[in-house]
Amino acid sequence: MLKNIVKNLEPSSTLKINEISRQLEEKGEKIFKFGFGQSPFQIPINIVNELKNNAYQNKYLPMQGLKELREAVAKYTSTNKNYNYKSENVIIGPGSKELMFLLHVLFDGDVILPAPSWVSYAPQAILGRNNIQLIQTKRENNWFPTSSEIEEIILKDKNKNYLLFLNSPNNPSGQICKNLQEISDIAKKYNLIILSDEIYSELSFEEGFKSISSFCPEKTIISTGLSKWCGAGGWRLGYFIVPDSLNILKNSINVLASETFSAVSAPIQYAAITAYTNDHSKYINNSRNILKAVGNYVYENLKSNKVLINKPQGGFYLMPEFINKKFNTSSEMCDNILKETSVALLPGSDFGFNKTKMLARLSFTDFNGQDFMNNTQNIKKINNDLILKFAPKIVEGVNRLKKWSESI
Predict the structure, then answer these.
(1) 29: domain range?
(2) Which of 195, 173, 171 is nearest to 183 (CA)?
């Protein structure tokens, strides 16, 4: 029964580590919050002002979302993806997380999850009573699945429906998927739908981010929102873009939405129009410039023969692997790191890896983003002196981690 399933689930590990860090800080301890990932930057002021201006909006909005916002999102996405999306393709939700949950509830088939996967994909699939097919990925392929690994699962039963979650730039690895064409070929060949979680796409460190939707738009649901690029995680506004070929699924999501969250907060939807119609490229470029510099600093100063790590490519995560034989599980290792160094990390086992692999997720956002941005707006290359000045906890936390890795 569903109630029994819920009883066996744990709270989301990303939210849990944030609570643990907060409790330790309240006790007076200095904690390096490398476990919880959220944007360190403030929301652009023009979007905040629009929220204030629309605080009086008190009517229920259409369950699929405010039409003007859906039109703005469709136009913005069509320009970026070079594909014609219409307002009817867009569903506005209270964060993309809720929309993913409704998709899991509706989908009938096997959910293919590459490890590493964001911590909520698997629990939501379990709540949706779908079978999970886990693919253990490799560092050499940027921690993404190959087409042959996906095809191997599908060939076991070609009559099933399959839903692949593809998160690029990736949480927790900070990597970007490079083999999109071969994955799209598999999607076209078989009964495979792709949920492309692109919540970090605006924060890709290189220009010209490529989405799987550019290769197989008719098979791809795009999932994204305001939380990462706009610093608006607490506003809870995300959206799906569902192609015409998946209209039945889109209509079913709308039905579930009408029976669950009804509609996203009206003032936030009105304010979000500004997010997608005004030019925020300067804000995004400044954010990206800082995150790239800080991420590279962590990478350069942490990598060693004791710490294997890929250079970050987008978002605000790294996934170091600590070479040691001292611990039995990555969870045990992260507990020790917190105890010995006051650095909070999340174990790789939370993201689908075998618990004996000593992987961890490191979020490099423990700094005052607005202060950093205000003081570096016209600086193209952010050096280590600036990172030391405006992200001192990142520098000290990395030093503590490095010393710890050398001592085990």
Answers:
(1) 2-43+281-407
(2) 195
